[in-house]
Amino acid sequence: MRPITRAPAFMRTATTSALISHFRRLVYIALTALCTIGAAGAADLSTAAGWWQPIDGKSGKPLGLINIYQDHGLFFGRIEPSSPSDDGSRKCTRCPDERRNQPIIGLVLIRNMRQQGDEYVGGDIVDPDSGWIYGCKFRLIDDGKKLVMRGYFGISLFGRSQIWKRVEPNR
Questions:
Q1: Where are the domains of the chain?
Q2: Among residues 137, 133, 123, which one has the least CA distance to residue 153?
Q3: How far apart are CA 31 and CA 37, in angstroms?
Q4: Which of 12, 15, 45, 88 is 20 to 30 A from residue 109's alpha carbon, by CA?
């Protein structure tokens, strides 16, 4: 049987140093990848695009889930399912335009909004319960964590505002 020999001390140090250096490099790469993935999945609070939960002004309860998205430079908002108990068969029977008889879940209720400074203007919003179409504008507050939505007839003076809270979708 051959005796077990150990490498000289200077070689063990070099090997250990190389392993530690290699390990540090791997950890750095892994952390960089995780940070990049995390940043890509985080909501961009500088834009209205994202998931929003309207809050009832009287009761303070959430009213559903709206996905605001950008398409060809304009912003649109679609009603999304907010819980498994949402009625997917309910339709917008009172809507006066191409949205008539469309399912409420998936309905584009905000259309053609454009960003103008710190406000989003120029589009409209439909109330699926009444079918009324209102002019609307909105702006971000609380560093992009909330949105003030204002629906109005003709001019903004004749309308009402509602606070929407930014949320992460449960997907």
A1: 8-42, 50-167
A2: 133
A3: 10
A4: 45
Check: CB of residue 156 under 8 Å from CB of residue 150: yes
Nearest to 136 by CA among 60, 75, 56, 49: 75
Give residue-wise pLDDT tens across range 153-170.
988 889 999 999 999 876
> How do strand 133-141 and strand 119-126 relate by DSSP bridges?
antiparallel
- Fold of domain 50-167: Lipocalin (2.40.128)
12 vs 97: CA distance, rounded Å: 78
Backbone angles phi, psi at 164, to 5 degrees: -115, 140
Q: Which long-range contacts (CB under 8 A, 24 or more apart) does 37-41 make?
A: none
Residues 74/123, Cβ–Cβ less than 8 Å: yes
Task: List, for residues 67-91, the tens digit of each pLDDT value.
Answer: 999 999 999 999 999 887 788 899 9
